[in-house]
Specification:
The protein is α/β, with parallel strands linked by helices. The protein has helices at residues 15-28, 34-46, 53-56, 63-77, 82-86, 110-116, 133-141, 154-166, 226-235, 254-263; strands at 5-6, 9-10, 88-91, 94-97, 123-127, 146-151, 173-177, 188-193, 239-248, 267-273, 279-285. Helix 1 (15-28) crosses helix 2. It has two domains: 5-78, no CATH class; 88-285, Vaccinia Virus protein VP39 (Rossmann fold). It is elongated, with a radius of gyration of 22 Å.
């Protein structure tokens, strides 16, 4: 058996030959990071860590593994995210299960985590928790804290709960179905959220990979600020004195979201940039020892 291409199929005899074919296929389909994606998919098929792939490149690849790799490459060519093919995504040093029911946790969201950890907290509320990546990361980094994750989607809450169990955080985290504040009670030291912030007019210009993520978690079907208005309107009624709110934003929304917080009496409002210098998180703090019951 010789390496080559026959009717678009991989006819390689080694892992390396199959990997070369897969990389070339992804590159031809104009997939950014074709080599990286192909390596991740091959490691997944072979059930090994990606950093060990080099060790098995000369090895023969079984017909079963070859077929599985072909199928994974075809899914990626169709612009399905690698994380969905793998069923997991790394975030802040941990691995989270992801499905089409939740947003992929993204590296830029780690800016929100870093900002939250600059001050102690014992209770945290994550509005629109999705996979639970933000809430569960904060709880894992602060073992003495407890938190609540809410989401309108039952399917998303199931993913979050599964991640909670995997990470062994069942004693710290709980989850509740809710449409923003509807049905939520309690006071928190910290409120966090990565709400849908993409304006409806911007959706057609986004990458095709986003078609595999829940639209309701991406856009408000309006100007991209609907969720912020709802969150900020009642946030102070759920924060303890000197409690904080941290909101992930789109890169053009820093001023608008800051104004929403200032209008509700939050102090120390500031915008935090990501590693590319783009506005990424807006933070604010309850200013005095007596919270104002907004929206009650």
């Amino acid at each position: 058996m010789t390496s080559g291409e026959t009717s678009g199929a991989i006819t390689a005899v080694t892992v390396q030959q199959a990997l070369v074919f897969g990389t070339r296929t992804l590159a031809t389909a104009e997939i950014d990071g074709a080599g990286r994606d192909a390596r991740l998919l091959m490691a997944h098929v072979l059930e090994i860590a990606s950093d060990r792939l080099t060790l098995v490149l000369p090895d023969a690849i079984s017909p079963e593994a070859q077929a599985a790799f072909e199928a994974a490459i075809a899914r990626r060519v169709a612009r399905e995210p690698v994380s969905h093919i793998l069923g997991r995504r790394a975030f802040y040093g941990r691995v989270f299960q992801v499905t089409r029911d939740v947003l992929d946790p993204r590296p830029e969201t780690e800016i929100l985590i870093q900002e939250a950890l600059t001050r102690p907290f014992t209770s945290v509320l994550d509005l629109g928790t999705g996979s639970g990546a933000i809430l569960l990361t904060l709880l894992a980094e602060n073992p003495l804290s407890k938190g609540l994750g809410s989401d309108l989607s039952e399917a998303a809450l199931a993913v979050a709960q599964a991640n909670c169990v995997t990470l062994g955080l069942g004693k710290q985290a709980r989850f509740q179905q809710a449409n923003w504040w509807n049905g939520l009670n309690g006071d928190f030291d910290l409120i966090v959220s990565n709400p849908p912030y993409i304006a409806a007019a911007e959706m057609p210009d986004l990458s095709p990979e986003l078609a595999y993520e829940p639209r309701m978690a991406l856009t408000d079907e309006a100007d991209g600020l609907t969720a912020y208005r709802a969150i900020v309107a009642e946030a102070r009624a759920h924060l303890v004195p000197r409690g904080r709110i941290l909101l992930e934003i789109g890169p053009t929304q820093g001023a608008a979201v800051s104004d929403l917080l200032l209008a509700q009496g939050f102090k120390a409002v500031r915008v935090v940039a990501d590693l590319d210098g783009r506005d990424r998180v807006v933070s604010g703090q309850v200013p005095n020892p007596h919270r104002r019951n907004v929206g009650k």
